[in-house]
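Intended use. Records like the one below are meant for learning the mapping from a protein sequence to its folded structure. Do not use them to infer anything beyond what is encoded.
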Amino acid sequence: MWRAGRLGRGAALGLLLAVHAVAAFEPISVGIAIGAASALTGYLSYRDLYCRFAECCREEQRLNASALKLELEEKLFGQHLATEVILKALTGFKNNKNPKKPLTLSLHGWAGTGKNFVSQIVAENLHSKGLKSNFVHLFVSTLHFPHEQQIKLYQDQLQGWIRGNVSACASSVFIFDEMDKLHPGVIDAIKPFLDYYEQVDGVSYRKAIFIFLSNAGGDLITKIALDFWRAGRKREDVQLKDLEPVLSVGVFNNKHSGLWHSGLIDRNLIDYFIPFLPLEYRHVKMCVRAEMRARGSAINEDVVTRVADEMTFFPKSEKIYSDKGCKTVQSRLDFH
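Structure written out for the chain above:
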């Protein structure tokens, strides 16, 4: 028994080292290594020990909805719809022990409105290491899928990456940034994984989460927000039903949305189209204050005002919305 224990500890240590060694390689290699290590260390009854030294996929871990709600309310400005829908969608999905399909969210709005920021918050609340987690995978269209003539190759690679990583961790998270720059047809490669299948080639994708980030539809969102403003209605009066149908049809018919005539929309596989409203002057000031706090600086309202005043706003006549949202706040604050 003593020798077997010694051997088990040695094997576990070897697996730990192997996991760290493959960490520099592509997602599928890391996923397979993590999966193999988890399986073997579990067999050796050292899973708890293993998970103290390396990240583990905890599929049954419940979402701390209160912590997510607090973080969204305190850190995401001017996005009442996104806060409400994302909180409800994630809470409902994670509380469901037997979902019928993966959760698929499509986030839309102009740059600087908070889409990437929200995806980071979501990732951190699902896996403790957030975007650095072995179980959170970020794809950037212009980086990972740049060439239109290689669509078939990208489709095959994408299927392989997702299959390998979900095999290793059923609760994997996949984030697709710059969807509006993705060549038409690429994203349809993952359609079987988002559908209502119990398994695809022996793998269940039902506990995975897919998040799309896109500037497409920003003009449609702005038009409706502006109509509300001109009618004297509050920003918070805008409801999901005012925007979601317009967004889904708009991106489906937009050749530059990444979802042009996509089967994902045609088959109703995207659970929520989430609009991010354009940010107003007061929201930009909130972003400046938040950045100051993040830097450990005292809030200087004169600096807050100067930074906000340097931003440009539209439409030209009313100047209501920041044309870059809060995207350049960090760099502008560096000059003050």
